[in-house]
Write the structure tokens for this entry.
Amino acid sequence: MERAHNTRVHVHSFLVMNSPTPNHALHIWLIRHGETEWSKSGQHTGTTDIALTEAGREQASALEPLLAKEHFDLVLTSPLLRAQETCKLAGLGDKATIEPDLHEWNYGIYEGLKTADIRKETPDWSVWSSPMPEGEVAADVGQRAQRLIDKLLAADATQIALFSHAHFLRTFAAQWATGAPAMGEHLALDTASVSVLGFDREARVIRKWNFQP
């Protein structure tokens, strides 16, 4: 399988959110799960518990050499199968604890649909700014992300791995760096990618983004 072009992006423009007592050794690794049939087709996959494809399992296994170089004090995974399976294949399953707040965005009535299909009925619809009947809007997911950020900042850990999903991790990174969850719209994230958050002096920053081994 041909992999997407690797990207290492050091983002230093999002220096908005500060911490009164920054832990300069803290690194939060964001790992998106491998490919599923719905991620491949572009269907919104929130609460549906779908497994990885064979290609997705290969992607997840390819993460193991990279992550094996790190010593993680804390490994957390979404309760959904695709994230747990990625965590296991990446070599961190034995260290992982399920964290409900890492669950993917709840898309409500739009679960399983593609953006192009939704826009046939609702032009200009966007997961980042449109109502989400029976689901979560960006502010809801941002609150969930902030709750998890507060837990991690209070934890006795400096190397943390989070296995989760595209829209949640994009929201989490935006909330970490800017406090504005909808900024995640500008942070594209590929399957089985690795990103790293941390500090630059007192500012919260995105140190690496969307790297695929």
